[in-house]
Amino acid sequence: MSDRFFPKTSPGTRGLQLHEPLIFERSEQGRMGVSLPEAGVPEADPASEIPAELLRGEIDHFPSVTEVQAVRHFVRLSQMNYGVDSGFFPLGSCTMKFNPKVNEWAARLPGFSGAHPYLPEEQSQGALELMYRLERSLSEIAGMAATTLEPAAGAQGELTGLMMIRAWHIDNHGTPRKKVLIPDSAHGTNPASAALLGYETVQLPSNADGVLEPETVAAAMDEDVACLMMTNPNTLGIFETHIEEICRIVHAKGGLVYGDGANMNALLGIARPGDMGIDVMHYNLHKTFSTPHGGGGPGAGPVAMVEKLVPYLPRPFVVKDGDRFRLDFDRPKSVGKLRTFWGNFGMHVRAYAYIREYGPQGLRDVSQLAVLNAQYIRALIEDEWDVAYENRSLHEVVYTDKNLKETGVTTMDVAKALIDHGYHPPTVYFPLIVAGALMVEPTETETKETLENFADALKAIAAQAREEPAALKAMPKKPIVERLDETRAARKPVLRWTPGFGTEA
Amino acid sequence: MRYLPHTESDIQQMLAKIGVKSLDELFTTIPAHLQLDRPLAIEPALDERALMDHLESLANKQPKDAPFLGAGAYPHHVPPSVDQLLLRGELYTAYTPYQPEIAQGTLQITFEFQTFVTLLTGLEVANASMYDGASAAAEAALMAVRVSGGKRSRIVVSKALHPEYRDVIRTYHTEGFEVVEVPFGADGRTDMKALEAAVDDNTAGVLVGYPNFFGVVDDLAGAAKIAAAKGALAISCTTEALSFGLLQAPGALGVDIAVGEMQSFGNGLNFGGPGLGFFATREKFLRQFPGRVAGATVDRTGKRGFVLTLSTREQHIRREKATSNICTNHGLNATAATIHLSMLGRHGLRALALLNWRRAKYARDRLAAAGRKAVFSGPVFNEFAIHAPADAVERIARAGLSGGLPLKRYYPDLSDGLLLCVTELHDKSRIDALVAALA
User: What's the CATH code, domain B346-438?
Assistant: First the structure.
């Protein structure tokens, strides 16, 4: 591997990375890593009350380590990870922006982190007020009447929105209707959520410009269609120019329009889904509003809606009565509950802090600069890298591996090479309608220099692909492991440690 | 703004390179009349210190003492070591580990979490987490229907299961499903005769709390036998996972799916969310279960490593044919639980569970001696219901404590029932103060 293809700004991962066994392989019986109080109450034996067949002793194979061992174990594991705090993370559709540290502080305030959801309202005023203020902000940003904070993640938000649509149809048309229209560029959660409710999904093709044509919607639209699910800007990052007309077509046949808010980072303070004709949408607080992704969650997927859908939102809904805040459970038309309690409140605190720190102008700046950053990378590399759709997108741009075709280097190889350059790869092979897609979403929190360095890395990779394709195929070399055998993992699933594990590998 | 890096000169240079004159020109694909022509009507921006003051003022309106209250969300000590590890930026600012070479930390922790769940539940496979116990229960019921090949549509649920779990199961099961509830007896356990009568050849799954909403250790083995006799899956729902330190594993009692809430390990209350749903089942259902899962493999040099696997069940591959729509899960909460369980270890887990039981027993005995008798006669772990005066919650608050859930909120027949929970955060003097407040 020659260093001439590695600009000085591509240091890769050279940190201290140590092999670390499983915690179950570190164990030595007799050790413990917690400090427990004396009971301080009279001795008693559970066997005096609980039948013997329902009791168990210590659990075999549970590890036994000290706090020191556990701390080192998890610190070492963390060093094998790459997060937004480690470096540039241009993962398209996931909006990996900086996660403000003050938000973590806020969520850990004892009054919030120790709040029990079933305490009486008078003992929950601070938490309820925060939820109410967040609800009002999210409704204004969406241009809609109300927002339920209950859904745990975007996919649960989709399910919530679809349930409300379903309930509205039953109320107004005496039937839930049968079909849901979904463009071919949509996230996989859209059809999966629709299928959970028994809807037949109808896939709509986008046109050569990557947008949905009103004619396509009109042709598919009939009175069996419950709703159209749209992401706007769509997963190509392109604004659906015909959104208003499309909404009119759907509404004319008694249907509703669901908005997947995954890409709201392009629109804050610039345009509002409610003004476009969209009836109900979910946010991903872990994308647009900076709550951390946590290596896979938790997220939060609040759902905003227009007035006519408000009666159907999940129970309960936070309301303000005079200067008091309360949870309103008396909602006879509600679709019910999708999870326990009132939502991922820990995420609500962070998102609220984020919105308050930016304010109205700041949020508009966020979206403007997110788009500027995405388009700047494009301007830097579009001579060498194929752009999937020529027309201008917003906060993300989808590139392809087409220009590398004769080298045999694929999008997956590019992604793995970027790891050695020190970057998290973009989203790859999504959306499904773009062959060899590389979806780059830099977000607003990255400097001009970072974007330029990343562009240099992509150009160097393209050059190396032409001269040393085999070297690229062997990447990444710098992380603690090289490319992993995913086929073996799926064919012979090993999903837990058992005694003797790993000795054969 | 400290998170936005560009100087005015940066912006001008970047616009010039792009070939546009202004930031507004980047948005010309949005029809002009759809663009907002006014600032968002949201509250003004705050500097960091003002923001902190504002948030503190809200948080300070909340009580800080650990409530005598569980009911699905349990007050437990979270060691500072757990929280400080969670604040490692490499862990909490990472994404879902789709690029395994630079996500071995998340993946190995997930693998360890799955192992902990199988050890606690006595089952063979577990996923990387669900949103919470209730949505995990609903997913378990959906899986039971799937396992029957869609031929069975009845879900039988104990009325002693957490009311919100039952609510969520009903919400998730819309068209074509029948959710039937069976009553509980004077001991607070599910009425086995009624259960036997309700489970028929069309029943896909039977759900029982373990311990149930009243804190009572239900007859899980009995319920599992009834389910098995009709070819239905037995599903246990555990809201207080610490009970696994004392109580027999559901897998050893014949259940097919064990789900529930693991917030008790390493996670705060957070006003009820995020929780930590867990999902474990038998190996034979591997291709039917929902959610992400990490598996072991090797890299090209033969070195051990971990990847997300069995993704052909999932929505990003299977779309409308996926086993669930779940995408984002509660990975960081699972990380917290994995760290806490590692530190507890085999001795600490047992000792902490025993401590909870003993303190709860002391509270029960003292309350009974003060005339506040138990509502149910069945055995309990760290939660229990007592007959209490109508103003019990106010009395507890007046004593400078908090907690107690009036059961009439969910069970009108249990009009004077008060659900209490005692954990390691409640020492003898606090318990004595609680008893004095209710005596």
Answer: 3.90.1150.10
